[in-house]
Amino acid sequence: MLLAKGHLRHAMFLAHLAVEKTLKARVTKITKDVPPRIHKLERLAELAGIDLRKNRRKILVDLEVYQQAGRYPDPSQAAIDKKTASRDFRAAEEMIKWLKSQL
Asked: Does some domain include residue 55?
């Protein structure tokens, strides 16, 4: 597992990507069309017609930093600490589980 081996930036980028793809599956189901080529989780949730409770919205917003860090690595970006990454990874797993139940 990337997270356990300390590859935090990569692990969290992939967590963001998994949430993004699950949201895009929901968008496709609802719209019967190809989802837009965007990475903003909150916007994808809106397009999917998902009413996010405040805590779920916060998870999506918190995951956004990992999308930028993974796609556009920059040495000046803030370091990702293991405690925060572990918390956010667990939140992403729960979000994916919930989103799958919405399909």
From this structure: yes
User: Is 2 inside any structural domain?
Assistant: no
Question: Which residue segment(s) compose the domain that 89 sits in?
Answer: 8-101
Q: How many residues does the chain have?
A: 103
Cβ pair 5, 79 in contact under 8 A: no
Torsion of CA 27, 33, 35, 36, to 10 degrees: -130
| Angle between helices 54-71 and 8-31 in degrees, nearest 10 | 120
The one-character DSSP state at 60 is: H
**Model confidence band, residue 95 (pLDDT cutoffs 50, 70, 90):** very high
Q: Which of 21-25, 48-52, 61-65 has the highest mean pLDDT?
A: 21-25
Nearest to 48 by CA among 72, 70, 32: 32
Give the chain's largest Cα–Cα span.
41
Residue 87 per-residue DSSP state = H
